[in-house]
Amino acid sequence: MKKLVAMALSLTLAVSMLTACGGTKETKAETSAETTAETSGETTAAADGESLKVALCVTGAVNDMGFCQSAYEGLVLLEEKYGAEIAYTENLQAADMAAAFTDYAANGYDIVIGHGFQFGDPALEVGAQYPDTTFICTEAAAASDNVASYVMSCEQGGYIEGMLAASMTKSNKIGFIGPIEGASLIKIMNGFEDGAKSINPDIEVQTAWTGSFTDTALAKEAAQAMIDSGVDFIAHDANECGNGAIAAAQEAGIYATGDSYDQHELAPETVLTSSMYNVPLVIESAYLDVVNGTFKGEVKYLGMAEGVVEMAPYYDMESAIPEDVRTMIDEKIEAIKSGEFVVPLDENIRK
C-alpha cells in the first residue's frame, strides 16, 4: 500500500498541472510547490541493507506519455525493486532547479536526479555544497566528484526516424518540432535531417522550436503551419508539448513518429513508430553504481548498443510501411548497434 506525502519546497515557482489528456492548465503556487513522495511498506532492502532516498526533478508532467514519464517510471522501479524511498518534483522551471536540488540534499536524500540537459549547472552548483549527496543528470555534460551525467545517444533514434520519414513522404517535405534549443534536442533534430538526407539528399526538412516543453497548442500550431506548406510527415522531440504535433498530424491524415516513449496509443493510425529512451535502465544503472560503490563522476554515453535508445514496434501500421523500407531500417539499426555505422553527432543549430 502506497501513501502520498506532501513535502513543501522552500521556493516559489510556477507549475503546470495536467488537467486532461493532451492539455495543460497553467497555475502558480503562492508560497511553495508541492512535491510528491511515495514510500512502500513492503519493499526489498537495498544491497547494503538500507533503502536509499532518491529524488527526481523533471521539467514537465510525470504522466506526459514521453520524456518525463519515462524517468518517473525509472524512479518507481527503484522503489519497487530495491526499496528506495522516492520523491519527485515536476514542472520545474530553470530558475528553480538549484533550489529544488538544495531542498532535497538538505532533507537527506542520497541521490538527486535531474532529467534533462538543463540540470547540469544546478547539479554542479549544489553538488559542491553537498558533497555527501550524489547528483545524477541525464542529457547534461556535467561531472565532478559527486556529479555524473548519463547521456542518451538520441541522435541515433532521430536518424532512424529521418530515414522512415524520407521513405514515406510523397511531397518530399518533412518536419521536426523541438521545444527549446539545447544540445540533446539539437542533436536529435540534426540526426533526423541526416537520416532523411541519406535517403533523399534533396528532401526539404522544416524545423521549428516552440519555446515550451508543455504547451501542446504551440506544437500543434507549428505542425499545422508545416502541413499547410506541404509537409506530410511530422516528427518531434518536445516532451508533452510534442503531443500537439501528433494531434495535428492525426487531424491532417499524415504520418508521424513519437519520441522518448512509445506514443502509439496517442494516435494508433498516425504514429508509425517512436524513438524511445529506456530511461528506467539508465536510472537503475546509476542507482546501482552508487549502491555498489562503483559510482564515478563522469559523463557516460548510452545508445542502441546498450539498449538505452530503442525503436517502438510498428504495431498495426507495419503493413503501411513497404517491406524493403522496414528491412533497410532494421539493417541500419543493427549496424548502429554493432558500431559498423556511427550516426554523426552534431549539437549545433543548422541554418
From TrEMBL:
One of the record's GO cellular component terms: plasma membrane
Keywords of the record: Cell membrane, Lipoprotein, Membrane, Signal
Record localization: Cell membrane
Signal peptide bounds: 1-22
UniProt key word Transmembrane: no
PROSITE patterns hit by this protein: PROKAR_LIPOPROTEIN
Domain ABC transporter substrate-binding protein PnrA-like: residue ranges: 53-340
Pfam families given in the database record: Bmp (PF02608)
Membrane-protein topology: Lipid-anchor
Keyword Metal-binding: no
Domain of life of the native organism: Bacteria
Stated family: Belongs to the BMP lipoprotein family.
Cross-referenced PANTHER family: ABC TRANSPORTER GUANOSINE-BINDING PROTEIN NUPN (PTHR34296:SF2), TRANSCRIPTIONAL ACTIVATOR PROTEIN MED (PTHR34296)
Identification of the protein by name: Nucleoside-binding protein
